[in-house]
């Protein structure tokens, strides 16, 4: 089967790119450089994306979307990624679709329209100090008390918890059940008494430790059914892995490197004509095309076939390692110019390489460490026994 964009989808891609180019101003970029979490211009930008109907182009009309396909939603994601200006990706691309599939009607009707308007941001509360790659070993507890649950515990790497409205929290509701069976998911408002965060450094960027000290949430905070949380976790993580597999920022880096190498010389010879440069760029382009088609295949599969849980894991591993390869190779081609940050008149590729080098490392463990993903591919894709 051939996976490529139809003429209509290609036009959509061009329309989205044109829209984003007209809305991402120098003032917005300057604001984000000073405050990566986003200020008033960034919030206005997100609001406009929602008001103009772009955030949920692949979501059902009843929740405020355009009713297009998951592949078209993925096209939007790639074009957003290409700009380098973040949106609430986790909320829009993982939490929202999981709620759409597994949440209660009340939760769908309340949260989904707000997500598409850019009015709600959700952070993920999974990892604990003693439960990292073995997520099912988590110990945060949620105990039923009348018409509430009382939550106690601690999470690490709760990225964006300091600016989120809710935490998508995994907690143990049945301590006597097998560890994969006694977990539930809660949407915990961050303004409740007993909830707090402290910053933690994640490769030069802020993440958080989040604390739950007798946090009391209503029964309506329970997502779906009690003790079904492992299914909800794997659904959300599968979407997150596809989200982390985007190719467009790599594509832009390659394009800008080719442009620079075609216009600059070293010892009287264009950089693009130097031994190895052209071959390296061609190899990166081919591998990026493979990733593009893998991602189209995975996005298409959301609505066209039974879920294959290994595909997002496979794509995520390939993308994470290709990401490293693309940025490292392009920086080597650009030499010292590749180390100049945005704002320098000599900067190449909008300063992507030096300013985002640390972020590339996050892809190696975001959504689950690559070694764990390889194990999932081996078990579910190749049918190998669990080690």
TrEMBL record:
Entry keyword annotation includes Nucleotide-binding: no
Transmembrane residue ranges: none
UniProt organism field: Neobacillus kokaensis
Domain of life of the native organism: Bacteria
Protein name per its UniProtKB record: Acyl-CoA dehydrogenase
Keyword Transferase among record annotations: no
Cofactor: FAD
Pfam family, one: Acyl-CoA_dh_N
Domain (Acyl-CoA dehydrogenase/oxidase N-terminal): residue spans on this chain: 6-119
